[in-house]
Amino acid sequence: MQQLSLLEENDSPPVQYWPGFLDCIQADQVFQASQELAWLQNQFPILGKLVPLPRLELMFGDSESYRYTYSGSVEFKAKPWPPFLADLRARVEAFTGYTYQVVVGNQYRSGQDSIGYHSDDEPSLGQQPAIASLSFGAARTFRMKRKESGGQSYAYDLSHGDLLLMQPGCQGNWVHALPKTSKCCGVRINWTFRPYAR
After folding, report:
1. Is 2 exposed, middle or buried (0-12, 13-18, 19+ CB in 10 A)?
2. Does residue 161 fall inside a structural domain?
3. Left if phi > 0, otherwise alpha if psi is -120 to 50, otherwise beta: which for 47?
4. Low-confidence ranges of the chain (pLDDT < 70)
């Protein structure tokens, strides 16, 4: 398995990237099982109106008391781990050396589904979290840039079965996004394994 290490060289993001972390058969199995879950479309307040987010979301965790809130208004409540995601967590933990208590999923139904620039720096994640991101389905371009405005944007074409690890410190200084695309593409599902600070 090829590893592309991108550790602050030439001011690039502190991430590590393993294309084909899961082989095609393994990735297909996770993708199929993921599509069978009961995905949610959350809403976000804009100018006094609730607008559906341009993606579907889910969260699973070690305790149903776990909550995850972002943008001050969207809240997840953790559901029990499906067996296939619990198995995937164990594999990711063994490979990366980090432990995770929750996973957040995003389903992008077409190129028009997206998520804007943001950092995963909510208090529930603790200090300087390491976040492991696994991609399934259609390939999409994942972008990162420093929080300071006007910084260079770095692009990673994430494909079926790829693993991207955002290392400790990444969320404090960098933002990331999955922009819309006019290219015709199918469904993409992304699972991000995260710590949870009790």
Report:
1. exposed
2. yes
3. left
4. 1-10, 71-72, 149-150
